[in-house]
Amino acid sequence: MRGTMRVVRLLALPALLVLLWWAVGGGSFYLPGPAAVGRAFAETWFSVRLVEDVLPSVGRLLAGYALAGVLGVGLGVPIGSSRRLRATLEPVLEFFRAIPPPVLVPLIMLLVGIDTPMKVLVIVSGCVWPILLNTVEGVRALDEVLADTCRMYGVRGGSRLRRFVLRGASPQIMTGLRQALSIGIILMVISEMFASSSGLGFTIVLFQRQFQIAEMWSGILLLGLLGLGLSLLFRRLERRVLSWYYGSGAARA
Amino acid sequence: MLEIHELRKVYESPGRRVEAIRSITLGVGAGELVCVVGPSGCGKTTLLRCVAGLLPVSEGQVRVSGVPVTGPPPDMAVVFQEYGRSLFPWMTVRQNVELPLKEKRLPPARRRELVADSLRAVGLSDAADAHPWQLSGGMQQRVAIARAVAYEPQVLLMDEPFAAVDAQTRADLEDLILRLWRDLGVTTLFVTHDIDEAVYLGQRVVVLSSSPTTVMEDLKIDLPPERDQLTTRSLPRFGELRGHVYRQIQRARGER
Amino acid sequence: MLEIHELRKVYESPGRRVEAIRSITLGVGAGELVCVVGPSGCGKTTLLRCVAGLLPVSEGQVRVSGVPVTGPPPDMAVVFQEYGRSLFPWMTVRQNVELPLKEKRLPPARRRELVADSLRAVGLSDAADAHPWQLSGGMQQRVAIARAVAYEPQVLLMDEPFAAVDAQTRADLEDLILRLWRDLGVTTLFVTHDIDEAVYLGQRVVVLSSSPTTVMEDLKIDLPPERDQLTTRSLPRFGELRGHVYRQIQRARGER
Amino acid sequence: MIRGNGLLARLGYGAAGLGGLLLLMEAVPRLGLVDARFLPPASEILATLAGELATPELWIALGETLRGWAVGLALAFCAAVVSGVVIGVVPGLRALTNSTVEFLRPIPSVALVPLATLLFGPSLGSTLLLVVYASFWQVLIQVLYGVAAVDSVAFDTARSYGLSAWSRVRHLVWPTALPYVMTGLRLAAAVAFILAVTAELVIGSPGLGAEIQVAQSSGAVPTVYALIVLAGLVGIAVNAGVRLLERRVLAWHPAVRAEAAS
Amino acid sequence: APNQGSGTSKVNAGVIAIVDTAPIHLGKAKGFFTEQQIDLTITPVAGGAAAVSGAVSGQFQFAFANTTSLLTAKQQGLDVKVVANGVSSTGEQGNDFSAVLVKPDSPIRTAKDLAGKKISVNQLKNIGDTTVRASVRRAGGDPSGIEFVELPFPDAPAALQNGQVDAVWVVEPFVSQAISQGARPVAWNFADAAPDLTVAMYFTTGTTDADLTRRFTAAMRKSLEYADAHPDEVREVLKTYTEIAPEVIAKIYLPKWPVEVNRASVQTVADLALADGILNDKIDVSALIP
Ligand SMILES: Nc1ncnc2c1ncn2[C@@H]1O[C@H](COP(=O)(O)OP(=O)(O)OP(=O)(O)O)[C@@H](O)[C@H]1O
Ligand SMILES: Nc1ncnc2c1ncn2[C@@H]1O[C@H](COP(=O)(O)OP(=O)(O)OP(=O)(O)O)[C@@H](O)[C@H]1O
Ligand SMILES: [Mg+2]
Ligand SMILES: [Mg+2]
Q1: Which terminus of chain B, N or C, has fewer Cβ atoms within 10 Å?
Q2: Beta-bridge mates of residue B5
Q3: ABC transmembrane type-1 domain: from which residue to which, for each copy (chain A) (predicted)?
Q4: ipTM value > 0.90
Q5: Dihedral sign computed on CA atoms, order E89, E91, E95, E99
């Protein structure tokens, strides 16, 4: 019973939107109807493309995401903890944050070449920001009494990091990770606009350039589904990691 | 053991400047148990945090074992007034109590023993696997006490540690602290607003005036060292001391 | 006014199931002041939250003025045990107290008056423009009390409201509540762990057993209605009642 | 420490950080770690930037970009805050919208270029569509998490004092969510700027992006980097603005409190 | 909107800002469009796809795109129609605006050696890879093993230098730039693919008014003719809409701007694209070029 309710909640609004699309779509060249896109989806993605284009892309996405997570949290904790470090690094970080990835790519290509490392780095270059910013803010907002408790009982160094800082900031860190997930997908596409000859993003861009519009939309559909799938996985993880947070009344969700 | 010399503390925040402590000079000998009482908001918590090295002093000095305090000294345990916020919500009760012991690198067997003992002492053996937020206020406070007790500190600072528990539990916990103090010789600074408690527990009771805060009286409690909830509290001298402190506090409040 | 009928409350969380309240039946008449005492963790806070409509009951029913409680009833004020968390840190003390009055759409002049009066009553006129986190624990608790008092509720629920204040302040606040109750006829349910306080304040004292929680005794306090800190507390009947409640709680704890 | 001093110190540290970056950017090509033809040293980039800044065209382009950025960001921010609060506060709505939000979020704005040009042509509208689409989600997610972070005791307090839904949002939910929202604003401000530039790059509406595009296809490497640096500088300015705002609206927050105290 | 009062039509043309499109800029400067009562705005676009979608959506009345892009658009059923020639190869080896370059010390000596190598093109499945394959085929090599990767022209020289690709295909100004930095041309792919290859064309969509199209074509033809005859003025106009360094402008190889589209070469490109699987069906070029 609860299971069916969940499915209903999951699907109700999307179903409504597809109906809406059905009603308005199909009229124009650039916005084909759901039927055409559905057909294109089946033809395009249930093929070797899945193995040759989609899987490597997803692999790079996950690698970049993981790296961004490590980097974002790894930098965010010291930056959040030290006012001086924050004052020093913030302008530099803000500088890089404002540079559009498409124009950053040539620089990354200069430094690491044009193969997989470049694409992973491009993904990192976008994903890292929400994680970093949220980590910094989460660390800054740690409870003072808990911090004092740690100091009193000599909890410091790695133990403090693991048992206090990371756990205490985890609600914010998880927010950042959640943000980064979809940004990662977007950057996966952007990274494959350069120096590529395969990949999900590349394929979508190619469809767009070759005016295969239904196919292009089917690729976007796939991106959306990928994002949805990953976010559902992410939620399971989050419910585990933050069970104390949602249980404790510190948050009401 | 603890020497507080002309301590002054002023909180400065934009638009508000509070002189929480004007000047406090106070010494606590090794193995002594001193209770601090004073009107609400007079600076007891502030004093404790300065002694614990958690708050920079504005003027004066605090020494622990002769060493000027700049950060938290080792082997000191604190029970915070905000007991709810001082427990890690992501850890179970057991983990909360065990954490400082891990930091002390005690062997696991010893840790388990200390945790079990201290939880039993505060009456929370059943709740070891619960998270703090699944407990009542009084239970949370007892977890914080258990953590301090299990730590086996040399100096123990307690800030209204029994505020949230019922009378009977409070009596039990008082005796727990007395036992700990006597058996291990823990130097203890105990903030309370319960005058009976201060007289019952303390070797000395320090009465703070209300703002601007100074030491109003440093009263030696000349009750027999062996204390007992029933007999000690019914001694005539107990009543006298109690009345004296009460009047002092009333004077302290009246002065503002 | 308040009718609690065979209330049962079970907390279910993954891996832990706590029967906080087995069965409580209790009535509080309009304009009555009933104190609830019981061992730590016996379910007093839980009871209060169920009455306030903040917690769904597992079984049984709660009615306020004859209406079954599903959400917070109007004209009810609650002072929470976690006073620190119940104040909004982004508001000053004044704003915290004023907020519910704004909700009631009182005219600004009347609001100002109520806020000033209630802050004066709890001794915090000076701190009106401070933020809660700039206050001591006891001061925060008094802000929460002032907020409830200013609200002029018909029903007042208080959960260990004086836990963090010193004895003298506590006495003043007790008299404040008595005054409020008498002048405005506020129906009051008052949770405390201080037996003296319960006997001094209450028309009735309800003693809860420890888990599984039931009403152990519903004691009528047959002291003269006019109460006074000095004379009332020194009445022999006061001592008797006090001793009786004390023994009951001890029995309650012993049973577990 | 008085506040002015703190600000000065912060500026000093910030300048030191940027100085370090400049040194690095000067050293890397000079030491031959990368070819100076492809990554000119910082001094050359700055000189080019100075030259560019002297031309009115650049300022016009920058103005265009900033207009798209500001309008788009404002639209996205307001829409996201309103929908975030509504979704977060109305029970059941979050579960209902979750799948759709998660589906739409990873769709890259660049993929919407054909749709944008179809709907709006080369006007500001296309840029806005892309900017709003991209930055909306950033704020929305932050708002959703922020709304969820309301303390249960505070919430119960609000309920028991009979605060109306609107008051609860205004006095409880919004202040709680505000730190998250500020982070969202900082994230969205950068994303909006990036998308404004990217939209110009791809659609060709006038602005900084178009300037970069022209410089790139002309092989004018120092100009490209000068424009990139300009973009970065805009980012720093925007962040400084948001930080200033944050200090005003979050003065009560532990993080900001600690900063202001010393 | 076109046709605004007194016979003057406002026209928005979507044109990429590269050397190839010098004639329209020059023609505008020379007043050839005003003569035809066209008030011309030139909007820079990023590439062929953007130009086509801009034209189809009505934002541009006319636009510029390369031959392959137009063929693909036509095949996908888009209503595009060529109105004027755009740019053509000079057809001369060693003197064209498009080349395949390798590092100075590369073992690749001729187009034949490109077989099996990694070559960058600005866009896959477009005119670059088809013509490079044609070059290799012509030199007697087997193009099937070539690995093409996408790299924007501006980034290609760096990638070549760093050894990330074996060869790059670029057009001006990057050909001259790379050569001056030591790169060595091994194939002139536009010249190889067909004689006088028509590389790109100006086009419109079915919705544009016939009279306006006629006038635009006339102005465009005049511009092409003028540009082809006045290379120095072309080099001058490049300074106005590109950022190419003046010393590079002085050296670059200019393309040809014949007035007429070379239909045969367009057919050749279509056939090559079909052979390489870029187009699915044989396309009738005359549908695209009326
Ligand atoms: N962080 C702070 N910022 C500004 N003022 C503060 C701060 N903390 C405490 N104060 C002020 O310092 C004074 C002393 O506070 P303190 O907490 O030490 O009192 P206390 O004796 O512990 O009171 P209580 O018995 O109520 O807990 C109070 O007037 C309070 O307003
Ligand atoms: N959120 C919760 N989840 C699970 N169990 C809970 C929760 N809140 C309270 N409990 C349990 O319910 C029981 C009663 O708790 P409650 O807070 O009502 O006690 P109390 O009488 O108010 O105690 P105290 O005097 O210490 O405040 C306790 O055993 C506690 O562990
Ligand atoms: Mg205190
Ligand atoms: Mg309680």
Answers
A1: C
A2: B61
A3: 54-234
A4: no
A5: positive
Query: Is residue C231 classed exposed, middle or buried when 0-12, 13-18 and 19+ CB atoms within 10 A define those classes?
Result: exposed
| C-alpha to C-alpha distance for C220 and D193, rounded to whole angstroms | 72
pLDDT tens readout for residues A205-253: 888 777 787 888 888 888 888 888 888 898 888 888 888 887 766 555 4
Report the separation in Å between the CA atom of A145 and the middle of ligand 1, taken as the mean of its atom positions: 14
Of the candidates E134, E11, E136, E16, the residue with the CA atom closest to the CA atom of residue E66: E16
Q: Which of A79, A46, A62 is nearest to A165 (CA)?
A: A79
Mean residue pLDDT of chain B comes to: 89
Residues 6+ apart with CB under 8 A from B145: B79, B122, B158, B161, B173, B176
CA nearest E63: which of E123, E17, E101, E16? E16
Angle of CA points E28, E31, E33, to nearest 5° = 65
Instruction: For chain B, say whether D3 makes contact (Cβ under 8 Å).
Output: yes
B84 vs C191: CA distance, rounded Å:
19
Q: Confirm or reject: Cβ of B204 under 6 Å from ligand 1.
A: no
Which residues have a beta carbon within 5 Å of ligand 4, which is an ion?
A: B 136-137; C 45, 81
C-alpha–C-alpha distance, residues C177 and B110, integer Å: 50
Task: Answer yes or no: do D107 and A232 touch at CB < 8 A.
Answer: no
Euclidean distance between CA atoms E63 and E43, whole angstroms: 9
Class of B2-75+155-254 per CATH?
alpha beta
The full set of domain ranges for chain B reads 2-75+155-254, 84-152
**b/e code B147-164 from CB counts within 10 Å (16+ = b):** bbbbbbbbbbbbbbbbbb
- Report the SS3 class of residue C133: helix
List CB contacts (< 8 A) between A197 and chain E.
Answer: 124, 147-150
DSSP secondary structure string for all residues of D1-63:
--HHHHHHHHHHHHHHHHHHHHHHHHHHHHTTSS-TTTS--HHHHHHHHHHHHTSHHHHHHHH
Nearest-CA residue for ligand 1 atom 23 is: B41
Best of D52, D126, D218 to disrupt the E interface (most E CBs within 10 Å) is D218
Q: Mean pLDDT across the stretch C190-196?
A: 91
Model pTM?
A: 0.87
Q: Which residue shows structure tokens 């800029």?
A: E25
Q: How wide is the angle at C-alpha C188 spanned by C-alphas C184 and C190, nearest 5°? A: 140
Can you give the length of chain D in residues? 262
